[in-house]
Amino acid sequence: MNVLLKESNVIQEDVKAISNDLVQELKKAEGSTWLISGGGGFLGGYFLDVIDYCNQNVFTKPCHVICVENYISAAPDRISHLTANQNFEIINQDIAKPLTISRDVDYIVHAASIASPTFYRQYPIETIETNVWGLKNLLDLGKSQKVKSFLFFSTSEIYGNPSPEYIPTPESYNGNVSCTGPRACYDESKRLGETLCVNYHQQHGLPVKVARPFNVYGPGLKIDDKRVIPDFFNDALYKKKISILSNGSPTRSFCYISDAIKGFLLALLSDHHGEAFNIGNDEVEISMQGLAQRIARIVGGVEIEYRQSDEANYLTDNPQRRCPDLTKSKALLGYAPKVNLDEGLGRLLAWYKQIYNL
């Protein structure tokens, strides 16, 4: 299906809200050059759209964006509206390969990754290469160009399966992660990525920040992404039963995309170099059964079933609980998520209906 993500007014509303809420912070970057890897992906696409909005409505001098994207897990249509924009340069390349950039760069955002468990289990080596070699390529570029700031997208999965006393989970928790299991290609490469970032900061003074997103969802997350929220909507909107591929008891805390992007930008544009920040929403920790019930309710006329996944390792090393301690992000960044789960799910439902003509 040709999914023209650019036509979504839900994304446009989000982008306007993000930009207007962070006008003073974003003004710091006016007229700068950004390099964003994975700019065609779920998170990266919002970064590009926010900068485009600011170029038109906030900045006197526009920013220039270099987007590096190989579309292994992204949709070309997500950023096709920017291909003729003179302020955007889109390079179709694997970020893990040697990179040549023709101009000075001020800000680097490494958003390229394969984040859906179904797909990173299919592409484990590529996942590791992107999270490690791709990151090192950009860290070396940032060091040589003396960038103003560098943001690495890690993941809440670096915490593994915390014991109950570490829920909500603070940044100081070291993690409980398998280095050989089916999820290790993603979890452990992100952990190594954080180690690289910290050491580039300590040894070379690189102003790097690490973001640990907690289950971000929203428009731009393709309905066939295979993560749990699009999976449930895929079932519900195509008039099937919502399939829960566990006993329904694992819990997650979900964060709507506009809140997450604000957190990422606050981290990037801060002076807290060498630090890691949880970015998520701590309002509700909901079970998979509870999530399925909410989606069934807002879609309407949908039943729920329990069944086993066709993927043999679907539940192996799957964390039982996931909820962020946001004390550090709130105190140091002024981070304050606003969109509750029902509102966010409603916005995502509206986007799916619009984009997929449902």
TrEMBL record:
Record-annotated NAD-dependent epimerase/dehydratase domain positions: 34-280
Any one GO molecular-function label of the UniProt entry: NAD+ binding
Keywords noted in UniProt: Decarboxylase, Lyase, NAD
UniProt record, GO biological process: D-xylose metabolic process
Residues in the signal sequence: none
InterPro entries, per database record: Epimerase_deHydtase, NAD(P)-bd_dom_sf, UXS-like
Cofactor(s) for this UniProt protein: NAD(+)
Classification via Pfam families: Epimerase
GO cellular component annotations of the record: cytoplasm
Stated name of the protein: dTDP-glucose 4,6-dehydratase/UDP-glucuronate decarboxylase
Organism in which the protein naturally occurs: Heliophilum fasciatum
